[in-house]
Amino acid sequence: MLKYFSFEPGYINLNNGSFGSLPKPVAEFCVQHAARVEANPDRYHRLEFAELLTAARARVARLIGADTDECVFVPSTTAGINTILRNIEWSSGDVIIRFSTTYQGVERVARYIADTHSEVTLSTVELTFPISHQEIVKRFREHVVGVKASCHSSSRVYAIIDSVVSHPGVALPWKQMTQICREEGVCSIIDAAHSIGQEMNIDLASAQPDFWVSNCHKWLFAKRGSTVLYVPKRNQHIIKSALVTSWDYPSPKESAPAAYDTGFVLQHEWPGAIDFSPYLSVCAAMDFREKIGGEQAINDYCHKLALEGGRKLASALGGCVLDESPSAELTLNMVNVQLPLPPTTSKELQGKIDSFLEYELLHKHNVSSVHFYHGGSWWVRCSAQIWNEVSDFEYLGKALSNACQEARSKFFAD
């Protein structure tokens, strides 16, 4: 499968989860699409792009089990979360629940809302992995019940839930937590950045989150800058404006209350003259995935490789795999392995070590992975993709052994 990607010779990419990678057939579609635009920009923008965009929305909607007009495209998951949180009309006593493992970019959005709306408070569910899905669900329910009990009856509670945590790269029981939100009258906002293309049977019609957003450029193979934002019709009145307010914003002051409609889909259709190829590339990406075997075959291979590669890497480093449960319920296509480095509580030192490992691996060994500190230990997160083999994990193991040895000498000599 390596032949389908444009990696430079000798580069080993075990970090698909951060940025994704574009297959050559999808890259070729983007080139052809750009040529089509430039051949007649007026015809394209005035007569053609809207139909193409609708077709792309329909294709991705079928994959995630949603209605076409409940799905729009935005540039990133962070942009999607911003769209949601900045449109909510906050009131006194409102609470945003997030997790200690919430992606920092998303956590900062929640923090900004609390900073700019003095009536909003933040509440944190603490998670340290490894931890079972059963315990996560129990802890989340207890936290939600506790928050609700401490709130005024008129206060609203919102929960930002990862479907797959970034650091460490672990799957959460987000559907069960969404169900708890429904039972407790809490608004569920699902950060599914790593879901589409990695998680099977998403089925949003059945799961019924209040909001859900996922990058198409990570695991689905679309061009970077392609993310699907799902807002069920019951909640589209909340999204009064796209993040980029533009031509199709309908002011409620300019229409009769009975006729007012936020125009959710239309507002996200034209943010201005942008490059639409990232959004439209989802069709080419899904065509490619079907050609090489389809969703099930792709994810079966990547999941199996993550488990086997993780064991090989743990053996090489003399550590352990984070998810050692018999069912591997925390593991989709990313695996986390402990690094042979001493613990440190200094955030400054953690940042220096992370930067050092990143530089050593990329510049000396031409291999990429993600390193982080969690639960008192250092870890490496590896993404298993169709271009990877077990030998890639073995190579990374040797590179990390060398890099960690140098890091111990450099940062822990005393």
TrEMBL record:
Q: Where is each Aminotransferase class V domain found?
A: 22-239
A Pfam family of the record is: Aminotran_5
Q: Which residues cross the membrane?
A: none
Q: Which domain of life is it from?
A: Eukaryota
What the entry lists under SUPFAM superfamilies is as follows: PLP-dependent transferases (SSF53383)
The record's keywords, sorted A to Z, are: Pyridoxal phosphate
InterPro entries (alphabetical): Aminotrans_V_dom, PyrdxlP-dep_Trfase, PyrdxlP-dep_Trfase_major, PyrdxlP-dep_Trfase_small
PANTHER family linked: HERCYNYLCYSTEINE SULFOXIDE LYASE (PTHR43092:SF2), L-CYSTEINE DESULFHYDRASE (PTHR43092)
* Name of the protein in question: Aminotransferase class V domain-containing protein
